[in-house]
Amino acid sequence: MRPMRREVGSAMEPLEQLTTDCLIVGGGGAGVMAALHAYDANPELDITIVVKGLVAQSGCTRMVQGGYNAVLDPRDSFAAHFGDTVRGGGFLNDQDLAWTLVNEAPVRLVELENRYGCFFDRHPDGVIHQKPFAGQSFDRTVHRGDLTGIEIMGRLKDQLFARRLRRLEEHRALELVPAPGGGAVAGALLLDMRRGVPVLVRARAVLIATGGGATMYRIAAPSLEKAGDGVAMAWRAGARLMDMEMMQFHPTGLLAGRSRLTGSVLEEGLRGAGAHLRNARGERYMARYDPERQERSTRDVVSRSGYQEIMAGRGTPAGGVWIDVSHLGAANVRRQFPGMVERCKAVGVDLATEPVEVSPTAHFHMGGIAIDADCRTNLEGLFAAGEDAAGVHGSNRLGGNGVAESIVFGARAGEAMAAYVAGRDLPAADAAFAAAAAQAALAPLQRARGEDAFALRERLGVLTWEQVGLVRDAAGLSAARTELDDLYARAGGVAVNPERRLNGEWQQALDVRNLIEVARLIARAALLREESRGSHYRADFPAPDDARWLANICFRGPGWGSSSSDGDGDGDGDGAAVQTDLRPARLTRMAPAVPA
Ligand SMILES: Cc1cc2nc3c(=O)[nH]c(=O)nc-3n(C[C@H](O)[C@H](O)[C@H](O)COP(=O)(O)OP(=O)(O)OC[C@H]3O[C@@H](n4cnc5c(N)ncnc54)[C@H](O)[C@@H]3O)c2cc1C
Questions:
Q1: Residue 323 lies in a domain
Q2: Distance of alpha carbon 330 from alpha carbon 537, whole angstroms
């Protein structure tokens, strides 16, 4: 590994600098797999992994409960997994990406076990155990009990540490930095959160793997440090985004008042095993929405049904519904779902013997940065993988395909970056841009008075939950867009206490700006899509409309920081230069059987 080079000096404020070959932003499944594969492709490379939390101990891959989808059984097939994925995605998936996923998921699973030391549950005869997950025609979900992510990330962390890559933990990426004159990505501006110091990293290639984030909603499942940073940064740099309206809600998030456990997921396997969902009147309400499958219906239907029960006044006093597995037998529940039993115990409820209060919870963003199968974006030098990327899941993700996506595409991104940087010079970075971005990040510390970041986030959560959430319509989305623009403007005037080191209030101010930026794009796309498909439900257009909408909504911003100003004079705060394209869905392998 080459020694780190630090330089000082820039146009406006001295900036610490360092250089690297491959800069990987994010330390979840996609980021860590990218680092391992880039290193193994060329151990001479200088690789830096930057993580807002701790490597392999932050983000959502570690939180994966249910498992990882892979075709292993000879009675299963790639065609079946692909068909389930594309039908589940409402045919909006990029089918080349989905095909790559199903083909490489088993290869990477074998790698996880044989090369990296993971160990998944097995039958007594030694064959890997695969369990059923909703929306799948075969039992193909590989797992380690109900805490699969800890097994995967624990082993990957050991592997990463063994390779002695440079780790910048508790560093957040603030902004991608262009080469002088724009165009190519030449690195990123970071904030060392421990010291409160901006650092410019020049790099030959940059990977965005910050794990998306559904955390702009009042009730949300992902790890709290995720704030849509990667998508927001890429957007400001001019990357092409796709399917931004597609936000998945999980039907059963815990309700625990203002505790941070509110929103955390009680896994899908509970419904698979026979859980009952009841409203405050004790009715098994799923009989009204999907009489055949009831609680085993798909995530989108079960989530929306719960939401509609709550909105119709049939919810519990805390604004939820009940999940009940007590009829499955306490010993059985404790044996099958030890992690879920433990989680409920933390809020004082015994899952094995009594009903637990739950609500739909914002879970996974299918939309994000458009990529090709090598994780390249439309910007030179910029790659994206994992939940930050769009296309694999279309309008809805199957349980078990998320972690598979991060592992498969993280590995591909690492290899593609290693190939990309070979023989390529380190680009110069636009120092004035970086200095201005650093100044903007520091500004909340310097204001004596201003907006309260926590209050903005609270309002954002309520607004998105009520108007950009499970049930949408034109009036609500239009009003939400107006208010989101106002919130965005206010986020530009936040004041925080001036301590630089480990200042949570300051991080909140930086988070909320990105969360609002992403929420605006979700609302914008949701208003455009006048149909219902997958996770996107419009009460005013309740059916799918293949004739008009078998297409991906793509946005491209003006690039390099300019989206934050309104340039079009219509007062909507989103700028004239936003390009919107409807890209016909890529039906390269399979078309819907019956056109709507
Ligand atoms: C509770 C829960 C259960 C789930 N269960 C399943 C399941 O059973 N099966 C399945 O397939 N999927 C599941 N998922 C989805 C799955 O977790 C995701 O699809 C996947 O883990 C995303 O991986 P990632 O690498 O893209 O992001 P993550 O693993 O979330 O990692 C993101 C990383 O980026 C870092 N980061 C964020 N912002 C910045 C920044 N500005 N600068 C630097 N670093 C940053 C974070 O600290 C973190 O290290 C679940 C999700 C949740 C929330």
A1: yes
A2: 37
- At position 67, the amino acid (one-letter code) is G
CB 190 within 8 A of CB 174: yes
pLDDT tens digits for 315-335? 998 999 999 999 999 999 999
Based on the fold, state whether residues 87 and 133 are members of the same structural domain: yes
Domain end call among 340, 360, 380: 360
pLDDT at 14: 82
Whether residue 242 is found in the same domain as residue 124: yes
Q: Which ligand 1 atom lies nearest to the CA of residue 213?
A: 30
CA dihedral of 486, 491, 497, 501, whole degrees rounded to 10? 160
Cα–Cα distance measured from residue 301 to residue 3, given in angstroms and rounded to the nearest whole number: 53
Q: What is the CATH number of the domain that holds 128?
A: 3.50.50.60
The set of residues, in sequence order, having a beta carbon less than 8 Å from that of 515 and lying 6+ positions away, is 213, 215, 216, 227, 228, 457, 460
Check whether residue 218 and residue 256 sit in a common domain. no
Q: Confirm whether 241 is domain-assigned.
A: yes
Residues in the chain: 596
CATH of the domain at 351: 3.90.700.10
Alpha-carbon span 364 to 55, nearest angstrom: 21
Instruction: Say yes or no to pLDDT of 11 above 80.
Output: no
118 burial level (CB within 10 Å; 0-12, 13-18, 19+): buried
Residue 594 included in any domain? no
In a domain, 428, yes or no: no
The torsion angles phi and psi of 163, rounded to 5 degrees, stand at: -90, -5
Q: What is the pLDDT of residue 260?
A: 85
**Tokens 């519990």 correspond to what residue?**
316
Q: Within this chain, do residues 175 and 102 fall inside the same structural domain, yes or no?
A: yes
Q: Quote the pLDDT of residue 258.
A: 85
Whether 308 is in the pocket of ligand 1, judged by its Cβ within 6 Å, is: no
Q: Is 163 one of the catalytic residues?
A: no
Whether the CB of 45 sits within 6 Å of ligand 1: no
Q: Could you tell me if 155 and 143 lie in one domain?
A: yes
Residue closest by Cα to atom 5 of ligand 1 = 64
Pick the catalytic residue: 143, 167, 250, 376?
A: 250
Tell me: do 37 and 104 sit in the same domain: yes
Question: Which of 62, 396, 403, 507 most suits a substitution to test ligand 1, by most atoms within 8 Å of the C-beta?
Answer: 403
Taking only Cα atoms into account, the Rg of the chain, rounded to an integer number of angstroms, comes to 23
- Whether the CB of 387 sits within 6 Å of ligand 1: yes
Q: Is 536 a catalytic residue?
A: no
Q: Is residue 511 lining ligand 1, measured as CB closer than 6 Å?
A: no
Ligand 1 atom, smallest distance to 268 CA: 8
Structure tokens at 363: 């879970």
Containing structural domain, residue 234: 17-246+364-421
- 133 and 221, same structural domain? yes
CB of 48 closer than 8 Å to CB of 166: yes
Pair 84, 161 in one domain? yes
| Residues 197, 199: Cα–Cα separation, whole Å | 6
Q: Mean pLDDT across the stretch 573-594?
A: 83
* Number of structural domains the chain divides into: 2
* Domain edge (last residue) among 360, 376, 400: 360
Distance CA 478, CA 288 (A): 30
